[in-house]
């Protein structure tokens, strides 16, 4: 039996591969897997199978399929919460859409998505638990618990979708795993671009010198393939507002790709954007930039658009949000600065 887990601590999805032993007797695949995968109930496995996430010899199978010697099983599961009970907390969240299968929210910057070491309270899941308990949900015989299918960094704002049951989670997870989700971000980055559009590619993996950050590995097999497309929205000389579209979804993808391309996100401490990287040495300019850092005490990144197929109806769904107030304020300051600088140069 071969079990392969893809970055279980770094990614939301777990990919397992089993080769059935020659002496294995006939047994339902959901029962077989439930005895070999931690934190995977038969109910969750049955939902994964119905979503097409369990394959035998490359073909999706039903939960009732009986494994045979020599079968090759591959499975994609959304990682379940572990090691800590999540309690409901009365925290305000911005709900963009909700039905009995999922909820779409506009996450505020500074909110952690999932409880983890150092952040056991005040997370999005704590807030959603309270929301589900108090809003009422017809069609659900049991209390609804939020089920993650993707994450957004703590200091990144924007659109997220959360499932309400195992089948919705499995089907949405498959879309993210297959990169069929449409995701676009606004980012304010240092520097200017020669072209209005472009693509950055390069494998992304954990930085061996700093395990809390990621790194681009342009050559070799280290890391996972990553592709980011960008489009210039507005140029301010020393910084640029761009839109990024993800073809893949790696940890810190936009942040690390832009840093690799020489355009770190504005005030991104992890990837060097919290320093004055472009511009003059005049004290007034330095004060201007430092004031912008104070108004926007985080990386300038916002998940503006999320598009996916509804996990039950199959309908195409797209959700968009505007720039949050902190990014909008700083963009306006840079816009005014760029205009005043141009007028000064023309005099």
Q: Can you describe this structure?
A:
By secondary structure, the protein is α+β, with helices and mostly antiparallel strands. It has 3 domains: 13-78, Structural Genomics Hypothetical 15.5 Kd Protein In mrcA-pckA Intergenic Region, Chain A (Roll); 94-170, Pseudouridine synthase (2-Layer Sandwich); 182-346, Pseudouridine synthase, CATH 3.30.2350.10. Helix content is 24%, strand content 29%. The chain contains 7 helices and 18 strands. The chain has helices at residues 29-34, 42-50, 124-135, 166-177, 253-260, 283-295, 325-346, and strands at residues 13-19, 27-28, 54-56, 59-60, 66-67, 72-78, 94-98, 102-107, 147-148, 157-163, 182-190, 197-201, 203-207, 210-217, 227-235, 239-246, 301-309, 316-320. The strands form 4 sheets. Strands 7, 8, 9, 10, 11, 12, 15, 16, 17 and 18 form a 10-stranded mixed sheet that branches. A 4-stranded antiparallel sheet has the order 1-6-3-4. Strands 2-5 form a two-stranded antiparallel sheet. β7 and β8 form a beta hairpin. α2 (42-50) packs across α4 (166-177). The longest helix has 22 residues, at 325-346.
Element layout with pairings:
Elements: E1 13-19, E2 27-28, H1 29-34, H2 42-50, E3 54-56, E4 59-60, E5 66-67, E6 72-78, E7 94-98, E8 102-107, H3 124-135, E9 147-148, E10 157-163, H4 166-177, E11 182-190, E12 197-201, E13 203-207, E14 210-217, E15 227-235, E16 239-246, H5 253-260, H6 283-295, E17 301-309, E18 316-320, H7 325-346
Parallel strand pairs: 10-17
Antiparallel strand pairs: 1-6, 2-5, 3-4, 3-6, 7-8, 8-10, 9-10, 11-16, 11-17, 12-15, 13-14, 15-16, 17-18
């Amino acid at each position: 039996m071969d079990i392969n887990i893809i970055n279980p601590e770094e990614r939301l999805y777990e990919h397992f591969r089993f080769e059935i032993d020659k002496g294995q007797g006939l047994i339902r695949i959901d029962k077989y897997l439930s005895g070999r995968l931690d934190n995977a109930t038969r109910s969750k496995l049955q939902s994964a199978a119905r979503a097409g996430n369990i394959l035998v010899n490359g073909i999706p199978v039903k939960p009732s399929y009986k494994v045979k010697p020599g079968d090759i099983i591959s499975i994609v599961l959304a990682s379940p919460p572990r090691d800590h009970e999540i309690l409901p907390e009365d925290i305000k969240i911005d709900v963009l859409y909700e039905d009995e299968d999922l909820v779409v929210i506009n996450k505020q910057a500074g909110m952690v998505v999932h409880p983890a070491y150092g952040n056991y309270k005040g997370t999005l899941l704590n807030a959603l638990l309270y929301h589900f308990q108090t809003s009422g949900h017809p069609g659900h015989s049991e209390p609804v618990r939020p089920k993650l299918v993707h994450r957004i960094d703590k200091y990144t704002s924007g659109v997220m979708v959360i499932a309400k049951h195992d089948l919705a989670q499995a089907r949405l997870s498959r879309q993210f795993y297959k990169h069929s989700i449409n995701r676009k971000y606004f980012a304010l980055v240092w520097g200017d671009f020669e072209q209005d559009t472009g693509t950055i590619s390069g494998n992304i993996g954990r930085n061996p010198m700093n395990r809390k950050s990621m790194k681009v590995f342009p050559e070799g097999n280290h890391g996972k393939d990553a592709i980011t497309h960008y489009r210039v929205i507005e140029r301010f000389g020393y910084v640029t507002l761009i839109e990024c579209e993800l073809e893949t979804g790696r940890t810190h993808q936009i942040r690390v790709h832009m840093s690799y391309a020489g355009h770190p996100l504005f005030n991104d401490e992890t990837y060097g954007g919290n320093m004055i990287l472009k511009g003059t040495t005049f004290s007034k300019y330095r004060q201007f930039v430092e004031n912008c850092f104070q108004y926007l005490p985080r990386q300038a990144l916002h998940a503006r658009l999320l598009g996916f197929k509804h996990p039950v109806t199959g309908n195409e769904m797209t959700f968009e949000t505007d720039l949050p107030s902190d990014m909008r304020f700083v963009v306006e300051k840079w816009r005014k600065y760029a205009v005043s600088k141009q007028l000064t140069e023309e005099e």
